[in-house]
Amino acid sequence: MWFEDNAEEAAKYYVSVFPNSKIKEVIKYPEAAEEASGQPSGSVMTVTLTLNGMDFQFLNGGMVEGYNLSTSGSVSFVIHCKSQKEIDKYWKALPAVPEVEQCGWCRDKFGVTWQIVPDVLGKYLTDPDKQRVERVTACFMKMKKFDIKELENAYKGGE
Predict the structure, then answer these.
(1) Per-residue pLDDT of the chain (159 residues; tens, 9 = 90+)
(2) What is the pTM of this model?
(3) In 10 A of CB 60, how many CB atoms?
(4) Of the candidates 33, 65, 97, which is a domain's last residue?
(5) Which of 29, 51, 80, 86 has a C-alpha 20 to 30 A away from that of 21?
(6) What is the residue range of 33's domain?
């Protein structure tokens, strides 16, 4: 993931949010890279980390047109949640741009887009009963943060 200059800050933040996470390695820019990268020697170049068991590498690549995380939601990371408590935990920690929150999607303070989704949603949306699917879809289209009880109520036929 490309960051302008705060890859290490982002890595520390995400490691604090997700279980089974750690920073594995931080590599600094050498003098030979200063001119080409525009980054000062000794500053963080890359951070290799594990987030909830998945490996990532963050790069401080500087400001380059088209590589600004906060201007594109075309890539998002899905967080599958087993409970409302888990949804609430991530929803409290990640969203930072209320204007873009919709149907479990949010953008954090680093510009990364996330989808915080209950596991049960897949079951509800693939049910052979089309009326159930319609009710659940109509229900979640009004949500920012998913509410499992409301989804379940819609699935069962409640209002």
Answers:
(1) 888 899 999 999 999 999 999 999 999 998 878 877 788 999 999 999 999 999 999 988 877 666 565 555 657 889 999 999 999 999 999 999 898 899 999 999 988 889 999 999 999 999 999 999 999 999 998 999 999 999 999 999 975
(2) 0.79
(3) 22
(4) 65
(5) 29
(6) 1-65
Q: Assign 124 to helix, strand or coil.
A: helix
**Residue carrying the six token digits 């302008």:** 4
CATH number at residue 34: 3.10.180.10
What is residue 59's three-state secondary structure?
Answer: strand
For the chain, what is the domain count?
2
Distance CA 107, CA 84 (A): 19
Cα distances (Å, whole numbers) of residue 122 to 37, 118, 127, 135: 43, 8, 9, 14
- Comparing CA positions, the residue from 51, 35, 43, 53 lying closest to residue 3 is 43
Residue 12's CB: how many other CB atoms inside 10 A? 13
